[in-house]
Amino acid sequence: MRGREGEQRLDAARLGAELGERATLVHFSSAFCQPCRATRRTLAEVAGMVDGVAHVEVDAEDRLELVRELGVLKTPTVLVLDAAGRIVRRAAGAPRKADVIAALGAAVSGAPPGG
After folding, report:
1. Which of 1, 32, 58, 66 is most exposed, with the fewest beta carbons within 10 Å of its own?
2. What does DSSP say about strands 53-59 and 23-29: parallel, antiparallel, or unpaired?
């Protein structure tokens, strides 16, 4: 998962779901996206491992304005938000569990965005 601009933020109102107390895994998916199913399982599993972490799935087809605003070009796309809702990591395609855990660790620890 690669770092992105740390000042772009999302909040519960824009996502349509509550953010996690420590971090949030945001998953843009679509109905016929096969890798989205595996991504959903991976993110739910990782979110379940860490207290205060939420997993929010966003249907890209239903939220085209948000998709365009965030530059989501394919599904699955995963954004990792810190406690303040700042996007600290971003990945397109199905992420590996180890990469999600590492990105989540950086978000929770407050490490600056990076590669």
Report:
1. 32
2. parallel
